[in-house]
Write a structure and sequence with these properties.
- There is one protein chain.
- The chain has one domain: Flavodoxin domain (Rossmann fold, 3-Layer(aba) Sandwich), CATH 3.40.50.360.
- Helices cover 42% and strands 18% of the residues.
- The protein has 6 helices and 6 strands; from the N terminus they run E-H-E-H-H-E-H-E-H-E-E-H.
Amino acid sequence: MATLKIIIASTRPGRVGLPIGQWVREQALAHGGFSDVELIDLAEVNLPFMDEPNHPRLQRYTHRHTREWSATIAAGDAFVFVTPEYNHGYNAVLKNALDYLHNEWRYKPVGLVSYGGIAAGIRAAQQIKQVVAALKMTAVAEAVAIPFVTQVIDEEGNVMANDAMIASAKTMFDELARVTEALRPLRRDAVSA
């Protein structure tokens, strides 16, 4: 089975991305379609604004933080991005994390969990699809979109998922597992090239 990495995009103090990411991890573990599920918090990764002198395609990284980020992403077979919507788009921290690398993302599927107000982060998710396509990733159509996100977080910061969230997560993980296996030969060929 495949390795899944869930990336929490928000680094904002008081963010709801952390409990949403933890809930997504619980759903992935309950799904059982992945051998290993890792939660990656970009607030902890703390990548500086892109500071590599060489193009990421060359993989000639000069900084330790880039080499560590490269190893983390290279070890994943599939991803889920947990993203807020800021001003009708996704946040700069996720864009920076994506732009640091190139080959490590290739032929890997990604599921999207977006959240926000009435639009549920959908505009951010749509923008991410353009960027991941350029990295040769495959965004699965099945996604989790959480409107009025503060209404599903209790006073202790726990997610009170509704039936629609749970069903959407299961459907997304079903498709993510299928696409991960379908892309496996391309990932294998890319590594050996």
